[in-house]
Structure formats: C-alpha cells, structure tokens
Specification:
By secondary structure, this protein is an all-alpha fold. It has helices spanning 2-7, 9-18, 28-38, 50-74. The model has no long low-confidence stretch (mean pLDDT 86).
Length: 82
C-alpha cells in the first residue's frame, strides 16, 4: 500500500488538477475550504449539509493523496527490509 501511494504521484497530480479543482472558475474546493474555516459550516442558517461534506471529500481526497505521496517520496523510510 505504501509503495502504491509512493509510486502513483503522477496519477494523484492529474486527479488533483482535474477533479480536485473542478469546476475551474473559481475552484470548488476553495469555496468549501473558506466555508469550513469561516465557521459557518457547522452552525447557523447556512450550515453545510451532507452533499457539501461529500463535495469536500470528493474534491479534497486527490489533494490529500498527492500530499501523502510527496511526503513519502521526500522522506523515505529509514528502515531497510532484508
């Protein structure tokens, strides 16, 4: 699993630039992140619904996988398997 995450960084980059940014003007994930950090996502009249949380998961997961892959490639494990 770790090797697959490490080796598929190109796939994660393509997914991040397509699904992660769609729709492109403005990127959907940017609006969701602003909504989360603005504090209105959890309470109030315009709190996030299930579909909004699903959008965050859908548009954010390629970015998380890309970041994880980059970290695994930049900081390889110090333990050698014999």
């Amino acid at each position: 699993m770790k090797e697959q995450l490490k080796n598929n960084w190109k796939l994660f980059l393509i997914a991040s630039l397509t699904l992660g940014l769609a729709p492109f003007s403005p990127p959907h994930i940017v609006g969701k992140i602003k909504w989360l950090f603005g504090g209105g996502a959890f309470s109030g009249e315009n709190a996030m619904q299930f579909m909004d949380w699903f959008d965050v998961l859908l548009h954010g997961s390629p970015w998380l996988l890309l970041i994880l892959s980059i970290v695994l490639n930049l900081f390889p494990s110090q333990v050698k398997n014999d």
